[in-house]
Amino acid sequence: MEPFDRLEGRAAPLPLANIDTDQIIPAQFLKTVERKGLGKGLFYGLRFDGEGRPRPEFVLNQPAYKGASLLITGDNFGCGSSREHAPWALMDFGVRCVIAPSFADIFFGNAVNNGLLLIVMPEAEVEALSAEARGGNHVFSVDLEAQTVTAPSGTVFRFEIDPDRKHKLLNGLDPIGESLQHVGEIDAYEAARRLQQPWAAA
Predict the structure, then answer these.
(1) Judging by beta carbons within 10 Å of its beta carbon (0-12, 13-18, 19+), is residue 195 exposed, middle or buried?
(2) What CATH number should be reported for the domain holding residue 157?
């Protein structure tokens, strides 16, 4: 997967709590295991009305937030079912980072395994960032190595992240990539096993 180091881009405020994975990517878009093309279904019920027309009031339909790569949202983002299509849809739409007071655990794991950075911050700081995103300048900077988010005003916010998750994101390691870091040890084990148990390797 693509490594995550720094991100500079537009931030869209979506101050709603308990956005579940069915809202992120509705069930009718889950008929594929392809990651490409899922962006069209992202937040479909929020982005479009019953006739499929864009809702002008929804933040990602507004010209000021076109191409947003950062989402600032509410508590318990990604709750509901465990569908991996949710981070796929966000990333296919262009979102590389989401900031919220908390995330659902399974969604968090799926996001990290697909290169989507999730940043947990205190609610007051999330609200401050959201307020800046509603201002005239929507460009934010995220530095994963330094663990900072810089708002348009120049205010720098620090965040904490599990060191293992940080390592995975910085190096673009999904679970398969992590395993391949130990390919030498795996090969040595398999060679020793063939010598010790030749009947098992047949």
Answers:
(1) exposed
(2) 3.20.19.10
